[in-house]
Specification:
By secondary structure, this protein is α/β, with parallel strands linked by helices. It is built from 8 helices and 11 strands. The protein is globular.
C-alpha cells in the first residue's frame, strides 16, 4: 500500500528536551503484518520471546463489556492533571502511551498516572514518523522510551504503540519484539481529538465508533478532550460497558 499523508506530527519544544504538544501533519503509512488481530477475540499478549515479532492488536474481544481509553501522553501538564482528576473521580482508569522525552522532563506526571490506578506504556522517545526510520533508529526510539519508563515505574511497561503511522510495519513489529514488547497496541476508535475539533465532535465520534472491546485513541494536553472525557465515560456506561486499562482489556495469558 503506498504511503499516504498522515494526520500526526508532534512539534519539538524548546531546549534540549523535546516536549510534545499534540498531533498534526506527518507521513502516515499503513502496513498490516501477518501477526494482526483486529476483530473478535484478539491474540493474547505476552512478553515477546527474543527475536519474535510483536503482535498488532487494534481491539479486544467483542464478546465482553470492556473498553480501553488510551491516551498519547504529551503536552500541557495542567490539562493532563485535569484529565487525571476526572479519571480518578469517575473511577475510569486509562492507559497513557507516554512519549519518552515528555516523561523524562516530567517524571512526576508519570508517577501520578500510576498512583491513580492508571497504566503507562511506550510511545517512542521523540515521537518521530517511525515508519520512515531504519531498524537501528526504530530500536533506539523504543529502547530509550523503555529506559524512561523503567526509571518512572521500575519496568519497561507491557505495551507499545508506534508513532507517526496508523499500523506498524513488519520492521517495527520486529524491533518491538526484540525490545521485549509482545503487543503493539492500535485502536479502532479515533475521534481525531488532536485536531481540536471541540468537545462535542470528539464525544459524537467516540459514540459513533464505540463497541465492546474498543480501544479509543485520545490525547492528553487538549482542552476539548478534557471537556469530552466525562461524557465519553458516561456514554460507555450507558451502553452497559465499562472503562478499563489495556491490561484489563487484553488479559495476561501467554500467546
Amino acid at each position: 500500500m503506498p504511503p499516504r499523508v498522515s494526520r500526526r506530527l508532534f512539534l519539538a519544544g524548546a531546549g534540549a528536551v523535546i516536549t510534545l504538544a499534540g498531533c498534526s501533519q506527518a507521513v502516515r503509512r499503513s502496513a498490516p503484518a501477518s501477526t494482526t488481530s483486529t476483530s473478535g477475540a484478539p491474540a493474547t499478549p505476552s512478553t515477546s520471546p527474543p527475536g519474535r515479532p510483536a503482535t498488532y492488536i487494534a481491539n479486544g474481544s467483542r464478546a465482553g463489556t470492556a473498553v480501553a481509553l488510551t491516551f498519547h501522553g504529551s503536552g500541557d501538564l495542567g490539562l493532563t492533571n485535569a484529565l487525571l482528576d476526572q479519571a480518578k473521580s469517575l473511577r475510569a482508569p486509562i492507559t497513557v502511551f507516554g512519549v519518552g522525552t515528555w516523561l523524562a522532563a516530567n517524571p512526576s506526571i508519570g508517577r501520578r498516572i500510576l498512583a491513580d490506578g492508571n497504566e503507562l506504556a511506550n510511545h517512542t522517545f521523540t515521537h518521530p514518523d517511525l515508519g520512515s526510520l531504519g531498524a537501528s533508529a526504530v530500536a533506539s526510539e523504543i529502547s530509550r522510551c523503555a529506559d524512561v519508563l523503567a526509571q518512572v515505574q521500575g519496568n519497561n511497561g507491557r505495551w507499545f504503540r508506534p508513532s507517526g503511522l496508523d499500523r506498524p510495519t513488519a520492521l517495527i513489529l520486529q524491533q518491538a519484539g526484540l525490545a521485549g514488547y509482545g503487543v503493539s497496541v492500535g485502536y479502532d476508535v479515533d475521534p481525531l481529538d488532536y485536531q481540536d475539533p471541540g468537545a462535542t465532535k470528539v464525544i459524537a465520534r467516540v459514540q459513533q465508533g464505540l463497541q465492546p472491546g474498543s480501544i479509543v485513541s485520545l490525547h492528553t494536553g487538549h482542552a476539548g478532550t478534557v471537556q469530552a472525557f466525562q461524557p465519553i465515560v458516561a456514554a460507555i456506561r450507558a451502553r452497559s460497558l465499562r472503562p478499563v486499562t489495556v491490561s484489563q482489556l487484553l488479559g495476561s495469558n501467554p500467546a
